[in-house]
Design brief:
Blueprint lengths: L2 H11 L4 E6 L3 E7 L8 H12 L1 H4 L5 E7 L1 H6 L3
Parallel strand pairs: 2-3
Antiparallel strand pairs: 1-2
């Protein structure tokens, strides 16, 4: 799977204000900013992202995904 493909899958299932993705085809690192994360704990945010990938996590199309998840306010506070 390419970075563009993975980014498209995440963006299709989760409205993102910012989505940055790097990796080597098996191990991915994502920074995701979404309003849907508001009021959710980190584990709930990660579960929400995993839900967008569905079977791709189970079939090993996406072997590993490390995430930093932020609400728009949290992201703005980081002064990006």
């Amino acid at each position: 799977m390419t970075a563009d493909e993975l980014q498209s899958f995440i963006a299709a299932g989760l409205p993102c204000e910012h989505l940055e993705l790097t990796g080597d085809g098996r191990h991915w690192y994502a920074t995701i900013v979404s309003r849907e994360f508001e009021g959710k704990r980190p584990i709930q945010r990660h579960q929400r992202v995993y839900a967008t990938l569905g079977q791709k996590m189970h079939t090993d199309e996406v072997h590993a995904l490390s995430m930093k998840t932020y609400t728009p306010a949290e992201w703005a506070a980081l002064a990006h």
